[in-house]
Amino acid sequence: MSLLARIRNLFSRSAQPGGAPGDDAEAMPDPAVISAITGEPVGDIALYAHAMRHRSLLRGRPGSAIESNERLEFLGDAVLGSVTAEYLYLEYPDEDEGFLTRLRAKLVNGKALAKLGVSLGLDRLIAVSDNLRQQGQTQKLTSIMADAFEALIGALYLDRGPEAARQFIISRMLEPQDLDALMRREDNHKSLLLEFAQARGWPQPAYQTLEASGPSHDRRFRVQVVVQDQPRGFGEGKSKKQAEQRAAASALAALRDAEPVNGHADATSGTAFHEN
To answer: Could you confirm whether 150 is annotated as catalytic?
Structure first.
């Protein structure tokens, strides 16, 4: 049996019902709906039910054999990162690592993934606790939608294989994007980094100019940003403002990569998510 088949069997077993009959933790999505979203036939619908099962459903059920979508999210996050990195590497053969990192950060972040998840209708499929549903905020909870999108990728990877997951990411997420226009858009990375730090109770990031060189008409600045007493990102630009923005973008990418996949805070908006 191949490694992929063994992993698929493991997830299929963990997705089997084991809770109270008829509740949302066991609800199976319509295979036709899943197929319309992924563009692939469904082999094991239990995998997709697993992907749409938020951890809030399991509160108060410590002995349940049912799992949340967190492990599939972990797998999907890795697949998404790999496919996106390869796609950008091939699409921009003349750009350096800094350019590719900044563009990847614009594509793969909580806010962007949540928006894509909602556009695919995952907000109508995700199974959450009664408390969350009664709040009427499922579509607004960025972290839930972003996690569901990554978990869906994980389920598709196990159900239909790596190439199906790759084609889904490219066709649904990467090809529809105007990457050049996206790269030209200036995000306020300093604000995003500040929100990221505040959501975790960290001190405000500090920016330090390491170097200023060149004649007055062609100045170049090199800046580092310090978060929690550690240099987290570096940036260069024709102005301090530009260099600081690039340092913040670099720091955000590094901090997101270092953060556990199942962290409760949304790395893009800085909004902490607390279960009810």
So the answer is: yes
